[in-house]
Design brief:
It is a single chain. 40% of the residues lie in helices and 16% in strands. The chain is α/β, with parallel strands linked by helices and 385 residues long. It folds into 2 domains: 119 residues, Aspartate Aminotransferase, domain 1, CATH 3.90.1150.10; 221 residues, Type I PLP-dependent aspartate aminotransferase-like (Major domain) (Aspartate Aminotransferase, domain 2, 3-Layer(aba) Sandwich). The protein has an 8-stranded mixed sheet, with helices on both faces. Strands 10-11-14-13 form a 4-stranded antiparallel sheet, with helices on one face. Bound molecules: 4'-deoxy-4'-aminopyridoxal-5'-phosphate.
Length: 385
C-alpha cells in the first residue's frame, strides 16, 4: 500500500456459518454483520425538567421549519389523504429538488432516506463476489447493503484515519471493483474527497459505480454534483435527515446520470416514499432561510465546542459536518456520565471504528453553551474519581 494504509477483504461466502436444519435466512443474509445501532431514544425522559441534548445520531437538534408543520396540518385536513398511496413520482418534491440541485428530472430519484438510496444502488448494481471498495472508518450501515448482495468488501484504511487514504484507495481498485463508496464529509472522521480525486477514481474504474454520500453536504458546503454531469458512473446521495430536520419522515435522494437512474427505477419501490415525508421535504425546500440560519448556527457553534474541549485538555477534532470528535480516556464511562446530565453521545470505540473517540453532534450556539456547562460538570466528576 503506497501510503502505508491497509486494505481488508471480507469474503462473505467465507464468513458464512454452516446452516443448521430448518428454515434459514438466505446465505448472504446469514453472513451479514448487522448494523449496530444504539439509539438513546428509549433512555430519554421526555418529562425531564432539563432539555435532553440528543447528540448521538447527527440529527438536527431543532424541529423543522414551521412551514413543514403548517403544510402537514393542512394536508391532514383532507381525510382521504392518508388512505391513498403517495405520488409515485414525488413530482412536487422532484420539481423543487431540480431547482435546489440544478439536476434534471431524469437525473433525480427521491428515496425513503438516503439509506434507501444506498440500498437500492447496491441492489441494482451488485452481483455476488463483486468487489466493493470502502475507505474506512465509514458509515457502516452501507456495509450491510453491500454484504446482503454477496459482495466482497474491501475496507481500505490509511495510516491516520483523519487523513484521506487516497493512494490506498487507488491501489485497492481493480477490474473486479463494482462499487466505490466515498462519504464526503465522512462520518465519523470528517474527511472530504476532492473533485480531482473522485474524478480520478471514476476514470480508473469505468465499470464501477462511484457513490459519493453527501449526507452532511449542507454543513460542509462541498459537493461532487458537477461530476455527475461529466461522469456517468458517479452518483451523489443526500438526505433530509440532518440539516432539514425531518429524520423521522425518511426522505433522501440520489443524483446520477439518466442511465443510472433508469436502471435503479427497474427495481425501486416507488411506493416506499411516504406522503408526509414528500410534503415535509417540499416545505423545507420552500423555506431555505430556515435551513441557512440553522447551518450558520452549527458552523458558529462547532469551533466553540472544540475550543471548550481543548481548554479541558482533550484532543478534539472539528469536522466540516455537524459533529466533532473528541478523544477521552474512558469513552464508556464518559458517555454514561454524560447521560446522567441529559447529554446523549455516540461512543465510536464501540464498533472499533475509532478507538477512544466519542462523537458529539453540534447544534445551535445556545445548545452548545448549555452542552459545555454540562460537559464541564462531567469532566469535573471524572477528575475527582
Ligand atoms: N449516510 C451517512 C454518512 C450518514 O451518517 C447517515 C445517517 N447516520 C445516512 C447516510 C443515513 O441517513 P438517512 O437514511 O436518514 O437519510
Amino acid at each position: 500500500m503506497m501510503d502505508g494504509g491497509r486494505s481488508e477483504e471480507l469474503c462473505v461466502s467465507e464468513a458464512m456459518a454452516a446452516a443448521p436444519a430448518g428454515l434459514q435466512p438466505s446465505a448472504f443474509t446469514r453472513a451479514v454483520s448487522p448494523y449496530r445501532a444504539a439509539p438513546s431514544l428509549e433512555r430519554i425522559d421526555p418529562h425531564s425538567a432539563q432539555e435532553p441534548l440528543k447528540l448521538d445520531w447527527n440529527e438536527s437538534t431543532i424541529p423543522p421549519s414551521p412551514l413543514v408543520l403548517e403544510r402537514i396540518h393542512a394536508f391532514l385536513l383532507n381525510t382521504h389523504h392518508l388512505n391513498w398511496y403517495p405520488d409515485l413520482r414525488a413530482a412536487e418534491l422532484g420539481a423543487r429538488l431540480e431547482r435546489y440541485t440544478g439536476a434534471s428530472a431524469e437525473q433525480l430519484l427521491v428515496t425513503a432516506g438516503s439509506d434507501a438510496a444506498l440500498e437500492v444502488l447496491c441492489q441494482t448494481y451488485l452481483d455476488p463476489d463483486d468487489e466493493v471498495v470502502v475507505p474506512s472508518p465509514t458509515y457502516t450501515h452501507f456495509l450491510v447493503y453491500a454484504a446482503a448482495r454477496g459482495a466482497r468488501l474491501r475496507q481500505v484504511y490509511g495510516k491516520d484515519p483523519f487523513v484521506r487514504p487516497d493512494e490506498a484507495i487507488l491501489s485497492a481498485l481493480g477490474p473486479r471493483t463494482k462499487v466505490v463508496y466515498l462519504v464526503s464529509p465522512t462520518n465519523p472522521t470528517g474527511v472530504v474527497y476532492s473533485h480531482e480525486f473522485i474524478a480520478r477514481v471514476a476514470r480508473a474504474v469505468p465499470q464501477a459505480l462511484v457513490i459519493v454520500d453527501e449526507a452532511y453536504h449542507e454543513f460542509s458546503g462541498e459537493t461532487a454534483l458537477p461530476l455527475v454531469h461529466t461522469y456517468s458512473n458517479v452518483v451523489v446521495t443526500r438526505t433530509f435527515s440532518k440539516s432539514f430536520g425531518i429524520a423521522g419522515l425518511r426522505i433522501g435522494y440520489l443524483v446520477a446520470s439518466p442511465e443510472v437512474v433508469s436502471a435503479v427505477r427497474r427495481v425501486f419501490n416507488a411506493k416506499s416514499v411516504n406522503v408526509l415525508g414528500q410534503i415535509a421535504a417540499s416545505a423545507a425546500l420552500d423555506d431555505l432561510e430556515y435551513l441557512y440560519s440553522y447551518v450558520s448556527e452549527v458552523r458558529a457553534a462547532r469551533p466553540e465546542l472544540v475550543a471548550f474541549l481543548r481548554s479541558r485538555g482533550l484532543l478534539a477534532r472539528e469536522t466540516p459536518a455537524n459533529f466533532v470528535m473528541v478523544r477521552v480516556p474512558n469513552p464508556r464511562a464518559f458517555v454514561a456520565l454524560c447521560e446522567e446530565e441529559g447529554v446523549y453521545l455516540r461512543d465510536r470505540s464501540m464498533d472499533s471504528q475509532l478507538e477512544g473517540y466519542v462523537r458529539v453532534t453540534v447544534g445551535t450556539r445556545r445548545q452548545t453553551q448549555d452542552l459545555c456547562d454540562r460537559l464541564g460538570r462531567v469532566l469535573d466528576r471524572l477528575a475527582a474519581l
